[in-house]
Amino acid sequence: MPTLEQSLFTHLANNLSAAADPIAGDPAQLMVAAGLTPDAWQAELLQSQWQRALLLCSRQAGKSTVTAALATHTAIYQPGSLTLLLSAAQRQSAELFKTVKTFYHAIPHRVPVAQESALQLELANGSRIVALPGKEATIRGFAGVDLLVIDEASRVEDALYYSTRPMLAVSGGRLICLTTPFGKRGFFHQEWTEGGESWHRTRITALDVPRITPEFLEEERRALGEWWFLQEYMCEFMETTDQVFSYDLIQAAMSSDIQPLFGG
Ligand SMILES: Nc1ncnc2c1ncn2[C@@H]1O[C@H](COP(=O)(O)OP(=O)(O)O)[C@@H](O)[C@H]1O
Ligand SMILES: [Mg+2]
């Protein structure tokens, strides 16, 4: 039990540091510091303590941006933490890492960099951010992960996802998956539809994104066609066009509480 003086001191010190550094207690302020006003869902994610979150978002919603802000905040204000940023491809990892560095430089009270390489930032407080292209082999070597973010999760291999689960179980780390849908397939779709209550789920269509205008959307609908438009902007898990049986039909056929058509 701390003494009254110790409690008072801690309280004052916290208030002082919050006054000196508003980003410390409110990660959404990191986006503000970088010149962006976070959308409501971005602020909610940044301020949350969600252990497991699935965010199904439109193209251009601001997934990668919020991901980079969350990673940067975690590294700066949680000393000794390890954050992994997984993307489907090398090019996306590099882009995400660039955004991380932009946010890092927006923090006035940032701890210095200890070491930096192409896709890795190590800070003087012992924290690390590593951006990785999503191949199962690349993440095998990491342990004690505090925050794992999977960007464009519906395009990341299932094997990669399943190999991260035990890693997080040991460290008690957070897992945040953000993506546009990509058919009724893959781990993201599985967790979104059948993953149970341990997940926090957020759905952000293009209509929720203030930077996307109705005129732009109408243009996209015409250019992409209805199928792609619904998937890319309206967050619909679409049937893949070459599928002979629809997903719902297959589910119905496998479900035990539906009577088989031809005797049993
Ligand atoms: N809250 C925001 N305010 C202003 N611009 C934003 C905001 N969030 C994202 N952006 C901008 O919107 C564009 C798309 O963001 P990005 O994170 O790449 O989207 P996504 O990964 O969902 O496709 C980028 O130019 C980014 O800087
Ligand atoms: Mg993105």
Key phrases:
single chain, 264 residues, alpha/beta, Rossmann fold, 8-stranded mixed beta sheet, 12 helices, disordered C terminus, binds adenosine-5'-diphosphate, binds magnesium ion
| Uncertain parts | 256-264
* Name of the CATH homologous superfamily: P-loop containing nucleotide triphosphate hydrolases
Q: How many β-strand stretches? A: 8
State the oligomer: single chain
H-E string:
HHHHEHEHEEEHEHEHEHHH
Tell me the structural class: alpha/beta
- Terminal CA distance: 66 Å
Strand order of the largest sheet: 3-4-5-2-6-7-1-8
Using only C-alpha atoms, the radius of gyration works out to 21 Å
Under the CATH scheme, the architecture is 3-Layer(aba) Sandwich
Shape: globular
Binned strand content: 15-25%
CATH secondary-structure class: Alpha Beta
**Overall domain count:** 1
What integer is the average pLDDT?
A: 87
Helix run count: 12
CATH T-level fold name = Rossmann fold
Main sheet overview: 8 strands, mixed
Helix content: 40-55%
Identify every distinct bound molecule in the structure, by name, code or SMILES. adenosine-5'-diphosphate, magnesium ion
Describe this structure in words.
- This protein has 264 residues and is α/β, with parallel strands linked by helices.
- The chain has a single domain (25-254), classed as Rossmann fold (3-Layer(aba) Sandwich), CATH 3.40.50.300.
- 46% of the residues lie in helices and 16% in strands.
- It contains twelve helices and eight strands.
- It has helices spanning 4-20, 22-25, 28-33, 40-47, 63-77, 90-106, 136-139, 158-171, 186-194, 214-224, 226-233, 247-254; strands spanning 52-57, 82-87, 113-117, 120-123, 128-133, 147-151, 174-179, 200-204.
- 32% of the residues are buried.
- The model is unreliable at 256-264 (pLDDT under 50).
- Bound molecules: adenosine-5'-diphosphate (ADP) and magnesium ion.
- Residues 63-64, 151 line the site of magnesium ion.
- Magnesium ion is lined by residues 63-64, 151.
